[in-house]
Specification:
214 residues, mainly alpha, 8 helices, 69% helix, membrane, transmembrane, Integral membrane protein, transmembrane helix
């Protein structure tokens, strides 16, 4: 069963728009809270992987939801690829928060409690459930799993460069003050997790043999 003109398809589309709006509200609330402490450096605020991933989620969720309301049915390939990337990123956001940040009491760039819950906990769970349950898409080629790894690679390179130059890092486990050997270990482990999640997301899309409109 896919989204085509069924009531459940419209409910799913509306839910995507609603969650995209809720995530946008969480990002805005976080920005306002940060601004209340002083001038906001946009390179720092949007340097957090959490903020970037949730911003991507806002665009993808609202876009997919509106398209689903206007034109129910299988989604075009570009949108499926975008959803795949957002799903990979959000799953990593949830895993990193649960394993590396929450145990340290670190907010991960989201000091507002309800916004933290939206972006670090509920968001990853709901996005993963959407990808697992919804069947309004076709299978993705395996090469997408490789291509979507380019984003975290570039993000990590920029973060490490900034850590070595101006000293700013978004997360404590990437702080060069603890030694580059330790940072490298974290990077290698997280990169492996990224690869596993990326290929799992693409593999799941291939469980149903539907054509994609490109």
């Amino acid at each position: 069963m896919h989204q085509s003109s069924r009531p459940g398809g419209y409910l799913l589309a509306a839910a995507r728009v609603a969650w995209g709006a809720a995530t946008l509200a969480a990002i805005v609330a976080t920005f306002v809270d940060t601004a209340s402490e002083g001038p906001v450096n946009p390179f720092n605020f949007f340097g957090y992987f959490t903020i970037q991933s949730n911003s991507l989620l806002v665009a993808v969720a609202i876009g997919a939801g509106l398209l689903g309301l206007l034109r129910p049915g299988p989604q075009p390939r570009w949108l499926v690829v975008s959803r795949s990337l957002a799903t990979m990123c959000m799953v990593i956001v949830g895993l990193v928060y649960a394993v590396l940040l929450a145990p340290l009491g670190a907010a991960g760039g989201v000091p507002v409690a309800w916004a933290n819950w939206v972006m670090h906990v509920a968001g990853p769970v709901l996005v993963a459930l959407d990808w697992v349950i919804a069947r309004d898409r076709g299978p993705l080629p395996w090469r997408i799993a490789w291509w979507q790894l380019a984003y975290p690679v570039v993000w990590t390179a920029v973060v490490l460069l900034r850590g070595a130059t101006d000293g700013w890092v978004p997360y404590p486990f990437l702080n060069p003050q603890q030694g580059y050997a330790t940072v490298l270990l974290y990077v290698v482990v997280i990169a492996a997790v990224f690869a596993v999640v990326s290929f799992t997301v693409v593999w799941w899309s291939r469980r149903w043999n539907r054509g994609l409109r490109g």
